[in-house]
Design a protein that fits this description.
mainly alpha
Protein backbone atom coordinates (compact mmCIF):
# COMPACT_ATOMS: atom_id res chain seq x y z
CA UNK A 1 0.00 0.00 0.00
CA UNK A 2 1.11 3.56 -0.67
CA UNK A 3 -0.71 6.54 0.88
CA UNK A 4 -3.65 4.30 1.85
CA UNK A 5 -4.21 3.01 -1.73
CA UNK A 6 -3.26 -0.20 -3.47
CA UNK A 7 -0.75 -0.02 -6.29
CA UNK A 8 -2.57 -0.04 -9.66
CA UNK A 9 -5.62 1.88 -8.47
CA UNK A 10 -7.47 3.32 -11.45
CA UNK A 11 -9.10 6.71 -11.79
CA UNK A 12 -12.54 5.49 -10.77
CA UNK A 13 -11.16 3.94 -7.55
CA UNK A 14 -9.11 7.04 -6.66
CA UNK A 15 -11.40 9.66 -5.08
CA UNK A 16 -8.93 12.43 -5.95
CA UNK A 17 -9.47 11.84 -9.65
CA UNK A 18 -13.12 11.09 -9.08
CA UNK A 19 -13.70 14.53 -7.61
CA UNK A 20 -11.92 16.16 -10.56
CA UNK A 21 -13.97 14.14 -13.05
CA UNK A 22 -17.21 15.06 -11.29
CA UNK A 23 -16.24 18.72 -11.37
CA UNK A 24 -15.50 18.51 -15.11
CA UNK A 25 -18.78 16.71 -15.70
CA UNK A 26 -20.61 19.53 -13.98
CA UNK A 27 -18.75 22.32 -15.76
CA UNK A 28 -18.25 20.85 -19.25
CA UNK A 29 -20.71 21.47 -22.05
CA UNK A 30 -22.09 18.28 -23.63
CA UNK A 31 -24.17 18.09 -26.75
CA UNK A 32 -27.71 16.75 -26.80
CA UNK A 33 -26.65 13.87 -29.01
CA UNK A 34 -24.55 12.39 -26.18
CA UNK A 35 -27.73 11.76 -24.17
CA UNK A 36 -28.74 9.03 -26.59
CA UNK A 37 -27.43 5.56 -25.65
CA UNK A 38 -25.39 3.36 -27.99
CA UNK A 39 -25.42 -0.44 -27.96
CA UNK A 40 -21.92 -1.48 -29.02
CA UNK A 41 -23.08 -5.06 -29.65
CA UNK A 42 -24.89 -3.71 -32.73
CA UNK A 43 -21.87 -1.74 -33.99
CA UNK A 44 -19.25 -3.16 -36.35
CA UNK A 45 -16.07 -1.78 -34.79
CA UNK A 46 -13.92 -2.93 -37.72
CA UNK A 47 -15.81 -0.43 -39.89
CA UNK A 48 -15.53 2.31 -37.25
CA UNK A 49 -11.80 1.99 -36.50
CA UNK A 50 -10.58 3.47 -39.84
CA UNK A 51 -12.99 6.37 -39.34
CA UNK A 52 -11.56 7.05 -35.84
CA UNK A 53 -7.98 7.05 -37.15
CA UNK A 54 -8.86 9.37 -40.04
CA UNK A 55 -10.81 11.73 -37.76
CA UNK A 56 -7.88 12.01 -35.32
CA UNK A 57 -5.57 12.86 -38.20
CA UNK A 58 -8.00 15.55 -39.43
CA UNK A 59 -8.19 17.22 -36.01
CA UNK A 60 -4.54 16.94 -34.95
CA UNK A 61 -2.86 17.01 -38.34
CA UNK A 62 -1.00 13.77 -37.60
CA UNK A 63 -1.58 10.15 -36.60
CA UNK A 64 -1.65 9.32 -32.90
CA UNK A 65 -1.61 5.58 -32.19
CA UNK A 66 -1.81 6.07 -28.40
CA UNK A 67 -4.94 8.19 -28.65
CA UNK A 68 -6.43 5.82 -31.22
CA UNK A 69 -5.95 2.78 -28.97
CA UNK A 70 -7.30 4.72 -25.97
CA UNK A 71 -10.55 5.57 -27.80
CA UNK A 72 -11.00 2.04 -29.14
CA UNK A 73 -10.47 0.54 -25.67
CA UNK A 74 -13.06 2.86 -24.11
CA UNK A 75 -15.60 1.81 -26.74
CA UNK A 76 -14.89 -1.91 -26.44
CA UNK A 77 -14.66 -2.23 -22.66
CA UNK A 78 -18.41 -1.79 -22.27
CA UNK A 79 -21.46 -2.54 -24.39
CA UNK A 80 -22.91 0.84 -23.36
CA UNK A 81 -20.02 3.33 -23.06
CA UNK A 82 -20.53 6.64 -21.26
CA UNK A 83 -20.01 9.44 -23.83
CA UNK A 84 -19.72 12.18 -21.19
CA UNK A 85 -16.94 10.36 -19.36
CA UNK A 86 -15.22 9.69 -22.69
CA UNK A 87 -15.28 13.42 -23.44
CA UNK A 88 -13.76 14.17 -20.02
CA UNK A 89 -11.02 11.57 -20.57
CA UNK A 90 -10.22 12.86 -24.09
CA UNK A 91 -9.99 16.53 -23.13
CA UNK A 92 -6.29 16.22 -22.25
CA UNK A 93 -5.58 14.84 -25.75
CA UNK A 94 -7.88 16.79 -28.04
CA UNK A 95 -8.36 19.90 -25.90
CA UNK A 96 -10.66 22.32 -27.77
CA UNK A 97 -11.43 19.68 -30.40
CA UNK A 98 -12.82 17.20 -27.86
CA UNK A 99 -16.47 18.21 -28.10
CA UNK A 100 -16.39 18.26 -31.91
CA UNK A 101 -14.84 14.80 -31.98
CA UNK A 102 -17.35 13.32 -29.55
CA UNK A 103 -20.28 14.82 -31.47
CA UNK A 104 -19.15 13.24 -34.73
CA UNK A 105 -18.15 9.93 -33.07
CA UNK A 106 -21.48 9.51 -31.32
CA UNK A 107 -23.36 10.40 -34.48
CA UNK A 108 -21.55 7.71 -36.44
CA UNK A 109 -22.11 5.15 -33.67
CA UNK A 110 -25.85 5.88 -33.50
CA UNK A 111 -25.99 5.49 -37.25
CA UNK A 112 -24.02 2.23 -37.12
CA UNK A 113 -26.31 0.49 -34.62
CA UNK A 114 -29.21 1.04 -37.04
CA UNK A 115 -27.28 0.27 -40.21
CA UNK A 116 -26.99 -3.10 -42.00
CA UNK A 117 -24.31 -5.25 -40.38
CA UNK A 118 -23.52 -2.52 -37.87
CA UNK A 119 -22.02 -0.31 -40.59
CA UNK A 120 -23.08 3.36 -40.89
CA UNK A 121 -25.03 4.18 -44.03
CA UNK A 122 -22.85 7.25 -44.61
CA UNK A 123 -19.68 5.12 -44.66
CA UNK A 124 -21.29 2.72 -47.14
CA UNK A 125 -22.26 5.61 -49.41
CA UNK A 126 -18.79 7.11 -49.08
CA UNK A 127 -17.24 3.81 -50.15
CA UNK A 128 -19.62 3.59 -53.11
CA UNK A 129 -18.69 7.13 -54.16
CA UNK A 130 -14.98 6.32 -53.88
CA UNK A 131 -15.38 3.21 -56.05
CA UNK A 132 -17.46 5.17 -58.55
CA UNK A 133 -14.86 7.94 -58.72
CA UNK A 134 -12.09 5.37 -59.14
CA UNK A 135 -14.01 3.66 -61.95
CA UNK A 136 -14.61 7.01 -63.68
CA UNK A 137 -10.90 7.82 -63.45
CA UNK A 138 -10.02 4.44 -64.96
CA UNK A 139 -12.53 4.94 -67.79
CA UNK A 140 -11.13 8.42 -68.41
CA UNK A 141 -7.60 7.03 -68.60
CA UNK A 142 -8.74 4.30 -71.02
CA UNK A 143 -10.53 6.89 -73.18
CA UNK A 144 -7.42 9.08 -73.30
CA UNK A 145 -5.29 6.08 -74.26
CA UNK A 146 -7.77 5.14 -77.00
CA UNK A 147 -7.73 8.72 -78.37
CA UNK A 148 -3.93 8.75 -78.32
CA UNK A 149 -3.77 5.41 -80.16
CA UNK A 150 -6.30 6.64 -82.72
CA UNK A 151 -4.23 9.76 -83.35
CA UNK A 152 -1.10 7.63 -83.70
CA UNK A 153 -2.85 5.39 -86.23
CA UNK A 154 -4.06 8.44 -88.13
CA UNK A 155 -0.57 9.91 -88.19
CA UNK A 156 0.90 6.61 -89.37
CA UNK A 157 -1.75 6.34 -92.09
CA UNK A 158 -0.95 9.86 -93.34
CA UNK A 159 2.78 9.10 -93.33
CA UNK A 160 2.19 5.86 -95.21
CA UNK A 161 0.01 7.64 -97.78
CA UNK A 162 2.66 10.31 -98.29
CA UNK A 163 5.40 7.73 -98.72
CA UNK A 164 3.26 5.78 -101.20
CA UNK A 165 2.50 8.94 -103.16
CA UNK A 166 6.15 9.92 -103.27
CA UNK A 167 7.20 6.42 -104.28
CA UNK A 168 4.60 6.28 -107.07
CA UNK A 169 5.15 9.84 -108.31
CA UNK A 170 6.63 10.04 -111.83
CA UNK A 171 8.92 12.69 -113.20
CA UNK A 172 8.23 14.64 -116.36
CA UNK A 173 10.69 12.40 -118.22
CA UNK A 174 8.57 9.28 -117.65
CA UNK A 175 6.39 7.92 -120.41
CA UNK A 176 3.27 10.02 -120.91
CA UNK A 177 -0.04 8.83 -119.57
CA UNK A 178 -2.59 7.64 -122.07
CA UNK A 179 -5.97 9.14 -122.77
CA UNK A 180 -9.00 7.62 -121.14
CA UNK A 181 -10.07 6.06 -124.44
CA UNK A 182 -6.66 4.47 -124.96
CA UNK A 183 -6.66 2.23 -121.88
CA UNK A 184 -4.06 2.02 -119.11
CA UNK A 185 -0.34 2.54 -119.62
CA UNK A 186 0.44 -1.08 -118.74
CA UNK A 187 -2.12 -2.47 -121.23
CA UNK A 188 -0.88 -0.21 -124.00
CA UNK A 189 2.75 -1.10 -123.30
CA UNK A 190 1.88 -4.82 -123.44
CA UNK A 191 0.06 -4.40 -126.77
CA UNK A 192 2.97 -2.38 -128.15
CA UNK A 193 5.49 -4.98 -127.01
CA UNK A 194 3.55 -7.87 -128.58
CA UNK A 195 3.01 -5.88 -131.80
CA UNK A 196 6.72 -5.06 -132.19
CA UNK A 197 7.67 -8.66 -131.41
CA UNK A 198 5.36 -10.00 -134.11
CA UNK A 199 6.50 -7.43 -136.66
CA UNK A 200 10.12 -8.29 -135.91
CA UNK A 201 9.43 -12.02 -136.50
CA UNK A 202 7.57 -11.32 -139.74
CA UNK A 203 4.16 -12.14 -138.32
CA UNK A 204 1.21 -9.81 -138.56
CA UNK A 205 -0.16 -8.77 -135.20
CA UNK A 206 -3.70 -7.77 -134.42
CA UNK A 207 -4.87 -4.30 -135.35
CA UNK A 208 -5.07 -3.38 -131.68
CA UNK A 209 -1.49 -4.43 -131.01
CA UNK A 210 -0.17 -2.69 -134.14
CA UNK A 211 -2.03 0.51 -133.39
CA UNK A 212 -0.89 0.41 -129.79
CA UNK A 213 2.72 -0.06 -130.83
CA UNK A 214 2.53 2.80 -133.32
CA UNK A 215 0.75 5.11 -130.86
CA UNK A 216 3.11 4.20 -128.06
CA UNK A 217 6.18 4.89 -130.24
CA UNK A 218 4.73 8.17 -131.44
CA UNK A 219 4.04 9.38 -127.93
CA UNK A 220 7.52 8.36 -126.82
CA UNK A 221 8.97 10.32 -129.72
CA UNK A 222 6.84 13.34 -128.91
CA UNK A 223 7.94 13.21 -125.30
CA UNK A 224 11.58 12.93 -126.28
CA UNK A 225 11.34 15.90 -128.61
CA UNK A 226 9.44 17.93 -126.01
CA UNK A 227 12.09 17.09 -123.45
CA UNK A 228 14.89 18.22 -125.73
CA UNK A 229 13.04 21.41 -126.58
CA UNK A 230 12.43 22.26 -122.92
CA UNK A 231 16.05 21.49 -122.12
CA UNK A 232 17.27 23.85 -124.88
CA UNK A 233 14.85 26.56 -123.77
CA UNK A 234 16.08 26.27 -120.21
CA UNK A 235 19.69 26.59 -121.34
CA UNK A 236 18.89 29.66 -123.44
CA UNK A 237 16.97 31.23 -120.58
CA UNK A 238 19.86 30.57 -118.17
CA UNK A 239 22.38 32.03 -120.60
CA UNK A 240 20.23 35.13 -121.14
CA UNK A 241 19.81 35.65 -117.42
CA UNK A 242 23.52 35.38 -116.83
CA UNK A 243 24.32 37.82 -119.63
CA UNK A 244 21.98 40.40 -118.13
CA UNK A 245 23.32 40.10 -114.60
CA UNK A 246 25.34 43.03 -113.11
CA UNK A 247 28.45 40.85 -112.89
CA UNK A 248 28.30 40.04 -116.58
CA UNK A 249 27.95 43.75 -117.43
CA UNK A 250 30.96 44.65 -115.31
CA UNK A 251 33.01 41.96 -117.03
CA UNK A 252 32.01 43.25 -120.47
CA UNK A 253 32.75 46.84 -119.48
CA UNK A 254 36.18 45.87 -118.14
CA UNK A 255 37.05 44.31 -121.49
Amino acid sequence: MSGGFYIGTNIEQDPRFGDASKKLLEEMDFGKILKRPVDMTKVNMEAIKPWISERIKELLGLEDEVLYEFIVNMLEESSTPDPKMMQVNLTGFLESNTQEFMQSLWKILLEAQKGPGGIPESLIQKKIDELKHKREQEELIKANIAIANQRMRGTNAVDTARKTTRAGRKSRWDSPSLDKDSGSTDDNAQHASRGRARMASGRVGSSTENEAATRYDQRAGYEERDGRRRYQENRRHTATSRSRSPNARRIRDSR
